Amino acid sequence: MPDVLQIQALSKTYASGLAALSDIYLTVRRGEIFALLGPNGAGKTTLISIVCGIVRASGGTVMVDGHDINTGFRQTRALIGLVPQELTTDAFETVWATVSFSRGLFGKPPNPAHIEGVLRSLSLWDKKDSKIRTLSGGMKRRVMIAKALSHEPRLLFLDEPTAGVDVGLRRDMWQLVRQLRDTGVTVILTTHYIEEAEDMADRIGIISKGRLVLVQEKAALMQQLGKKRLTLQLTAPLAAVPAALQTWRATLSADGRTLAFEFDARSGGPAMVGFMKAVADAGIVYEDLSTRQSSLEDIFVTLLQEAA
């Protein structure tokens, strides 16, 4: 099936001269969870706002399910659901009324069963008759998600959806996101909780200073750029790294009791076996060892440093 989102040569320069986006090329597959990561001010929200028709691009094209966002605005907007960072709801409306009204804005006929299902999936059913102003911040965030899902979008944007919310909402929301993906909905999320992206995403995009630094399958990214760290707890402290281990770039802790070796995950076994042989040849005795695979956060920080 064709990609649900196609972005070509997209750019955005504001009147102040700030180049928020520069020459963005991106395709997002139908039915995947795509995580867009980047520091504050990298251009994540600007990119989402352009696709959703909130901000006008300075150049380039954006196609949503085969429709140009400019010439086919009504078609594309009806296909998109957006959960923005800001909580923007009518404080004096009830939960049921505001979610139902959002559905009507997209020309969808009333469907109480669908609205009920969305509210139940977000643990909002018992709050359906409550006014928005009486809800907690976390509950208001749930209402924003419900509004975005009210018209049954095929492309859902979640812009920092779990910022400042409780663990319960995060769990409920990610369960719902997985269910949506299983029905063919494409989800694009931005998050500062990198562990969420590592857990949820099929592919990762990293944006820095308005440019896409990398787009990669999550599993391939972890394999290609990930590092492994082997740590030895020594029986007796060392004063310095033995000469035989210096070619391995081993590092010693300040107290001399921990020897560490970092290697490319792709080299795997051979690198570790070679290092351990060198340790044995040097007569170093250890009482424990452990290995650690680098996380997506480690990779993210490294890529941003390289792009700086």
pLDDT < 50 stretches: none
Level-1 CATH class name of the largest domain: Alpha Beta
Tell me the distance between the termini: 37 Å
Total count of domains: 2
> Strand content of the residues, in percent?
25-35%
Which oligomeric form is depicted?
single chain
Give the name of the CATH architecture of the largest domain: 3-Layer(aba) Sandwich
Q: Number of helical segments?
A: 11
Strand segment tally: 14
- Give the overall form: elongated
Structural class: alpha/beta
Question: How is the CATH topology of the largest domain named?
Answer: Rossmann fold
Element string (H = helix, E = strand) = EEEHEEHEHHHEHEHEEHEHEEHEH
The pLDDT mean sits at: 86
Structure description:
- By secondary structure, this protein is α/β, with parallel strands linked by helices.
- It has two domains: 5-222, P-loop containing nucleotide triphosphate hydrolases (Rossmann fold); 227-295, 2-Layer Sandwich (Alpha-Beta Plaits).
- Helix content is 36%, strand content 27%.
- It has helices at residues 44-51, 73-79, 95-105, 112-121, 137-149, 167-182, 194-200, 218-225, 243-246, 268-281, 296-307, and strands at residues 5-13, 19-28, 33-37, 59-64, 67-68, 80-83, 155-159, 186-190, 203-208, 211-217, 227-234, 251-252, 258-264, 286-293.
- Strand 4 and strand 5 (67-68) form a beta hairpin.
- Helix 3 (95-105) runs parallel beside helix 5.
- The longest helix is centred in the middle third of the chain and has 16 residues, at 167-182.
